[in-house]
Amino acid sequence: MTKPRRGDNVEGPTPLVRRTDLPEEGPMRTPSPRRRAAAGLTAAALLLAACSARTTDPDSSTADVSTATTVTMRVWDQSAATAYAESFDALTASHPDVRVKVEVVPRGDYDARAAEDLAAGTMSDVFWADPALTAEDEAADRLVDVGKLLGDEEDGWEPAVTGLFATDGTVWGVPQQWQAPALYYDAALTGPAGVDPARLTWAPGGGEGDALADAARALTSDGAGRHPGDPGFDAGAAATFGINAGPHLLDVVAPFLAANGARLLADGRFAFATPEGAEAVQYLVDLVRTGAAPPVGGAPALDLFRQGRLALLQASSADLPALTERAADLRVAPMIAGPQGRAGVLDAVAAVGNADSKHPGAVETVLEWLGTAEGQAALASRGLGVPAAVAAQDAYVKRWERRGVDVRPVLTAAREPVLALPAGPHAGAATAAVEQALARVFRGELPVAEGLREAQDAGNTALDGK
């Protein structure tokens, strides 16, 4: 199976995307550098953030400690470490000669510590990585070639997610779990308005095929029950908003760009300042301008949704735990379709092997286990992210079903064609620079076309480390 290179588009009917975030929305995940910048360095991981370095030791194992080989694994999330301890107990039961100790390093310190420890030769045998790390030029000198090591094992992984950790045909990580944006909606608001979020579409300028603009207006009302466009509508006193829009590059803007046929990147550089890009962003700006979307800089959309004041929320699957307090009315739909279809925006974490490990045989055993449904079952049963092992995804779905939420629409994101997103050591700074410029557009300080050029230039300058 040929996997996509990072930075290439996956061939398919729709030129779409991966990855997302909610910069203003607050601490719901622990993003990779791109997401961390987008979330103001306050998010909790792809899962839920850890606060201090800890070590989880599978003491319940029956293995003979004196003869077993101990493999160390580093992650940035304590919830995941607890799940891995359970998983590795099962591994040791079938491979008593291998034990695994899991170390947790806080996400804020993780990348710097990883660089230091890799350079010093003191890095863990196996460790978590995001796509930015595996995209770096030094990956071949530091990481185990997983594709060569495990061969056909990757056929059981979500192909689009595996592609995030591949360069030039080489797979550098065993994907563990992923997240993608989805359209959450409050059925208590959409039902009475007669809006079916799963059938929403948008078109530039509200043209033929557009249903979102009217739906957003119908779902927005001020204290007097007036809607955008009605005489006397007071946007400043809105009781409910239709949908969130704004400069959130990876949760909102990138999906709209791609759904209109615009690229986010070309040859590793931002390239969205095009007529198609301007149409997509203008549509989002108009939602804010008419009052159908919350103003930029106002109350976070996540808070508005939880308060019952926002009907449609474009957010990541990683935000699901924060939304379950509204489980009675919470529903999930795929992202809104545009002229070119829907955008699948993926973020993921992989387990990578340290090429300098003194225990290569045991590392191979651990990596192989982590790529199986059994190895990811403990993560899946806790709902800590969509498992990359396809056979483990049913456990994730059932976990959320028990909470009253059907998350199957999230899984469709991985089957969409993929548009390249920024990678490398400056990806986070580049995302932040783009969003800062886009914020000026959404506040009405810059015309859309001019603002897109400024955002594109700022992002590319940051990608260069300047």
TrEMBL record:
Organism: Georgenia thermotolerans
Residue segments, region Disordered: 1-37
Family, as annotated: Belongs to the bacterial solute-binding protein 1 family.
Gene3D superfamilies: Periplasmic binding protein-like II (3.40.190.10)
Subcellular location: Cell envelope
Annotated Gene Ontology cellular component terms: cell envelope
Cross-referenced SUPFAM superfamilies: Periplasmic binding protein-like II
UniProt name for this protein: Extracellular solute-binding protein
